[in-house]
Automatic annotation (TrEMBL):
Involved in targeting and insertion of nascent membrane proteins into the cytoplasmic membrane. Binds to the hydrophobic signal sequence of the ribosome-nascent chain (RNC) as it emerges from the ribosomes. The SRP-RNC complex is then targeted to the cytoplasmic membrane where it interacts with the SRP receptor FtsY. Interaction with FtsY leads to the transfer of the RNC complex to the Sec translocase for insertion into the membrane, the hydrolysis of GTP by both Ffh and FtsY, and the dissociation of the SRP-FtsY complex into the individual components. This is Signal recognition particle protein. Signal peptide: none annotated. It comes from Sulfitobacter sediminilitoris. The gene is ffh. GO terms for molecular function: 7S RNA binding; GTP binding; GTPase activity.
Length: 297
């Protein structure tokens, strides 16, 4: 589907005279191709532009290594620079969930994969870290969403807060907090309501919930295939709610993963996990190397 960046660059360098060091012109020509590759991978234009500029400064004047071609060398420089941007501080996938019961707030737009990810993450915490997890759905507008979380909970053997009709999200949150404390849970996860677009009511609701629990982690779940929209969503949620990390879903799809780079570059928030399918096991720690490889094709 896409032309591989290495192939593209070897073509560029074949046309250039071989010299002892990467000249400014060589690097410029090569980075034009890099920019196209980034844009094809759905990296936003300003991010691609800034990234290429930084790499250009880094690459110009570098001695050409004998063992690899100039094209491969530029690819390596670009690859390393991508990883630098993509990796956040600390262990990938690490969550601040000491001091039980630790509240985790899950936020995002409807259809992004929030409920599925809540359950996947609960399963992971239970199985890999031996945590006792309680999940609660705050989506009072969509009874089906509450049912969905309860069904997933049964499937993975994780408790969900019993559904009480007529309660508002803040009341449910208070009940979850109490239940998590009394029940000896390590973690309680709050699956907030999603909307089709960001709206004031949704934000106020999430703010009210946040203020009841002071979440240890606030994870934004976004569809990784939505590119720029995912980045806007993250900016909005971060401004209003303050997010501690991002989960990119649908990374099993055809997308090239450029949203991950834009996300990191624009919001500065770590991408903690990626969703790789609908199954409950299809959640993995975010690995910068894998995404960098995918972006470069
Ligand atoms: P919510 O409205 O944000 O809670 O979204 P859901 O959790 O209900 O997910 C919406 C749909 O996306 C469901 O059919 C999920 O199975 C699917 N889904 C969620 N995460 C992934 C993923 O990582 N990959 C794929 N292929 N599908 C996913």
């Amino acid at each position: 589907m896409f032309e591989n960046l290495s192939e593209r660059l070897s073509g560029v360098f074949d046309r250039l005279t071989k010299q002892g060091a990467l000249s400014e012109d060589d690097v410029k020509t090569a980075l034009r191709e890099v920019r196209v590759a980034l844009l094809e991978a759905d990296v936003s234009l300003p991010v691609a532009r800034d990234f290429v500029k930084a790499v250009q400064e880094q690459a110009t004047g570098q001695a050409v290594t004998k063992s690899i071609t100039p094209g491969q060398q530029v690819v390596k420089i670009v690859h390393d620079a991508l990883i630098d941007v993509l990796k956040g501080e600390g262990e990938p996938g690490a969550l601040k969930i000491d001091n039980p019961p630790a509240p985790i707030l899950m936020v995002g737009l409807q259809g992004g994969g929030k409920t599925t990810t809540t359950a996947k993450l609960a399963k992971r915490l239970k199985e890999r870290e031996g945590k006792r997890v309680l999940m609660a759905s705050l989506d009072v507008n969509r009874p089906a969403a509450m049912e969905q979380l309860a069904i997933l909970g049964q499937q993975i053997g994780v408790d969900t807060l019993p559904i009480v009709k007529g309660e508002d999200p803040v009341a449910i949150t208070k009940r979850a907090k109490t239940q998590a404390g009394l029940g000896g849970y390590d973690v309680y996860m709050l699956d907030t309501a999603g909307r089709l677009s960001i709206d004031e009511e949704l934000m106020q609701q999430v703010e009210a919930v946040r203020d009841v629990v002071t979440p240890r982690e606030t994870l934004l779940v976004v569809d990784g295939l939505t590119g720029q929209d995912a980045v806007h969503t993250a900016e909005n949620f971060d401004e209003r709610i303050g997010i501690s990390g991002v989960v990119l879903t649908r990374m099993d799809g055809d997308g090239r993963g450029g949203a991950a780079l834009s996300m990191r570059a624009v919001t500065g928030k770590p991408i903690k996990f990626v969703g790789l399918g609908e199954k409950m096991d299809a959640l993995e720690t975010f690995e910068p190397e894998r995404i960098a490889g995918r972006i470069l094709g």
